[in-house]
C-alpha cells in the first residue's frame, strides 16, 4: 500500500507542469493558439527545483507560467532536453495525462486550432457524449510537442458555475486534468487518503462518440472525478477497459517530455509524508523556498507536493 492510513490534509491543484523541448516556442503556442498569457518572465529555475526533480546538477532548467482565466500551467524546459514524447502514444496509455480547457464555442475554437500545428486525437468533429456523461461536447488533440489536451463545452446546468458566467471569452480556463490509471478504485484511495480529494461524479463511457473522441475502437472507460480544495481544476481518473494500456517505461528520466507533473499545494507537507508507506519512493526538498516533496502515484504519474504559500 502506498498510503498507510485513510484521511489526510486538504489540498488544491495549483498547476499542471508540462515538459517541453523549446520554452519560447511552447509559450508562443499556448498564447497564440489557446489564449494563455504569460505570468512573469521566462527565467532560469531555482536550484532547489532541479534538486527536487532529481535532475543532474549539471543540467539547467527554465520555466514559464501561463494563465488562462483563474488557472495556470507551467512549462518546463531542460538543457539538455530529454526524450521526445512517444509518437505512438494513445489515449489509453498509462502515461496519458491531459488538461481539459473549457471553451464557449467549441466549433469556433476547433476551427482556429486546425490552423495551427496541433495533431488531432479525436476522429472528425467535436463529439457530444451521451447524457450519462453530462452531454458535454469534447475534442482531444496534441500540442506541437505531443502533449494531449482536450477542449470542453458544457451545456446549461452542467459543470462548475464558473463556466456559465455571462460574456465569457472563447477560451475560459482549465476544468480538470485527467490521468489514465490501471485501477480507478485503487488510485482514488491513494488521492483521497494522501490529499483529502473527494470523489464526485462517476460514469462508464462507451459508444461511438467516446470511441471517436479517444481515437480508440470499441472503447470503454471508467471515469471518476476527484475534487480537491479550491476546484477547478479537479482531477479525473480514467480507467480504460480496452486499448493498449502500456505502463510508463522504467527508463524515462525527469527531463523526458512525456513527464507531466501535477503541482499540489497542501497545508502540511510533513503530514503528507507521514501518510505514505515508509517504503514508498519520495524525494524531499524545497520548491521556490517552500517545503516540498516529489513522488509518483501508483501508475507513475509525477506529483510535486508543496507547502501552501
From TrEMBL:
Pfam families: Glyoxalase (PF00903)
Record bears the keyword Metal-binding: yes
GO biological process, one term: L-methylmalonyl-CoA metabolic process
A GO molecular function held by the record: metal ion binding
UniProt keywords, alphabetically: Metal-binding
Domain VOC, chain residue ranges per copy: 12-154, 173-308
Protein's name in the database: VOC family protein
Organism encoding this protein: Lichenifustis flavocetrariae
